[in-house]
Amino acid sequence: MPNPRWLARANRVWINPVARRVSTWMPGLGVIVHRGRVSGSLYRTPVNVFPRGDSFVIALTYGQDADWVKNVLAAQGCVLLTRRREIALGTPRIYRDETRGDMPAVVRAILRVINVEHFLRLTPPER
Questions:
Q1: Each residue of 58-99: pLDDT tens digit?
Q2: DSSP state of 11
Q3: Do residues 34 and 78 touch, judged by C-beta distance below 8 A?
Q4: What are the φ and ψ backbone dihedral angles of 18, each rounded to 5 degrees?
Q5: Domains and their CATH numbers in the chain
């Protein structure tokens, strides 16, 4: 079960403004830059993100119905700011993994406790 919506609202108001400042350089964190489906506004959403092979995987702690996820799916991609790099990503794919195998052991344990089983995989375009 993803985190409750009230927690998402609290994060948006209090935690995200701080998280956006450190998420672009701390390991395991990043900022997804995406456009609103309706408004066309540019948004920056802090996420936990982990490189896996040629892809990046994000645990969907607020579920697959979060607005930022819908925006990335509708646009078929986004930009990821992580480790002081800007990476264009596409081919978004949501998948379910009860083992949480793409996550580091500590993160896997936390996701198990909060019952997160859905993930978003994004891949840089071929060069």
A1: 999 989 999 999 999 999 999 999 988 999 999 999 999 999
A2: I
A3: yes
A4: -75, -45
A5: 5-123 (2.30.110.10)
